[in-house]
Amino acid sequence: MKSQQPTIGGLLRSLRARNQWTLKQMSEHSGIPLSTLSKIEHDRLSLSYDKLFQLSQRLGLSMSELFAETAVPATRAVTARRSLGRMRDATRVTGKNYDAYYLCTELRRKRMIPSVTHIRAHSLKAFGPLVRNQGEEFVYVLEGTVELHTEFYDVAVLQAGEGSYIDANMGHAYVLGDGCAAASVLAVCAAGDDEDLLATLLAHQDEG
Predict the structure, then answer these.
(1) Distance (Å, rounded) from C-alpha 114 to C-alpha 111?
(2) CB 36: neighbour CB atoms within 10 A?
(3) Which residues pair with residue 100 across a beta bridge?
(4) How much is the pTM?
(5) Burial status of residue 82 (CB atoms within 10 A of its CB: 0-12, 13-18, 19 or more)
(6) How far is 42 from 27, CA to CA, in rounded Å?
(7) What is the CA radius of gyration of the chain?
(8) What pLDDT digit, counting tens, does each position of 106-150 carry?
(9) What is the dihedral of CA 60, 62, 67, 68, to 10 degrees?
(10) Which member of 84, 107, 115, 121 has the greatest number of CB atoms within 10 A?
């Protein structure tokens, strides 16, 4: 049975996982541009021995230590983090379109941004331009009726007990449904590698 040979991409992925670095952090530590690093990790580019030697020096590792990383399975560290999301402790941000209560804000570097949001805009015209942010998001209607507007799909009407999961890079907007005076949703935005997702969401509020 043929064994799988380690690749430079696998080496860097293992090293990054071991240090719990994002691609951006790995780029900063290694001196390799972010786009180039992504291609290397996906085995679309490689590095010469000279470049690997320079990399080991940047990271303060010997070549043997650098290559040894591929032989050690990367283990996911248990952070044991926990945060209780209570409305009384939430950070409230009010804008023209949304009145959002961000939960568990004391946790830094979250992969998800949870919030309870009250929809304020009564129409897409009142909402303004569609918004975009990195990652994906899930919205579940707690009360009322909500219209989901996106740039690639027809309008979806969501009632209480219904939700949507979307690519947040796609232009989107949530507005009150026809004849609905108030609506609230539970929103969970997945940050991925975007460490500034919360700042982006807050900026959208400011724009409102």
Answers:
(1) 10
(2) 14
(3) 93, 117
(4) 0.59
(5) exposed
(6) 15
(7) 22
(8) 777 777 888 899 999 999 999 999 988 878 899 999 999 999 999
(9) -90
(10) 115
